[in-house]
Fold ABC transporter permease.
Amino acid sequence: MLTQDILLQAFKAIMTQPVRTGLIILAMSIGVASVNVLTALGDSARQYVINEFESLGTHLVIVLPGRSETTGGHPPIFGETPRDLTLDDANALLKSRHIAAMAPVVIGSAPISSGGLERETNIMGSNHALLKVRHLTIQHGQFLPDAPTDKEIPVCVIGLTIAEQLFPNRLAVGQWLRINDRRFRVIGVLAKEGQSIGVGFDEIVIIPVASALALFDSHSLFRILVETHSQQAMYKAVEEIKRIITVRHDGEEDVTIITQDSVVNTFNKILSALTLSVAGIAAVSLAVAGVLVMNVMLISVSQRTAEIGLLKALGATRRKLLQLFLAEAALLSLVGALVGSLLGIGGIMILQWWYPGFPLSLPLWSWLSAIGVALGTGLLFGVLPARQAAGLDPVSSLSRR
């Protein structure tokens, strides 16, 4: 038997049992579609998180108060609370020649009002460098003035949603905005930014950091954002930041320093492992489909004993019979994989339509892997029926015994 004869014979055998064929293709397609959809969700989530962090800047360093290490047990009660980060600490970091820009950050919540309209929103205190460090864009007006960080200035920059809600049908720039009991003049409106690592810049009010500290009656910073000149300078800046803060905090290295690339790499590893785990769980359904292929083909062997006996009587070798039944398993698995791929792509398109803000895409490696695993599963579970068919005695098979 030639290769084309084997494929033709396998195709005819498949078409003689439409119900059996349909069940196998359905089981295999469900498995492949599940792998594709879940892998697309996991990989898209990984890409989304990485892009969010990369949008913060190219050489970003984040300084937070408190050590990242813990010793376990109950927290200390007296004398060992983390030292606050202050404006003086932030300004001292500018002594490093590796730092291109520094933006102290204070975060709080307060009611804002204008012209009888009022709402609660987040207030961020920072300086002029925040525009560069966070890569923000101004739609109207200008950003915070380039002034000393300890100078209180009654000006603010608001998000686009705040501008539309409190200043409908009029230009927000130049208007007065009340935050608690203080008045600030709006000098700028941010372009639409959306969510960025949990911060909604469309619904935020940015004021000078000194004004924010006075507004919240505090002297501590939430964090310090630092942008370095280059990738190489970032690691040098980290060491200098540790040294400067340690000297200022009486020899205690009581801050946590996070670099952007370390965060990206950590999330990349975690979400990649999660994606592979989810894909592995979904691939269990392919194993179930493989068991179905084996069971149905075992039944097929018992029903086709006369055909197998005739083929052996006509000179078909054990190897050719193995190839014949494995070809059936391969064709069934391949068709199921292709149908599953179409179902998976359709599912991804539906999810993309349902959640347009979350970019979904199917990695090429996932699509190829799903088809390969489906084909391999079909062949693996088709070996036993194929060997059973090849081992039948031709005389007994022709007599249907």
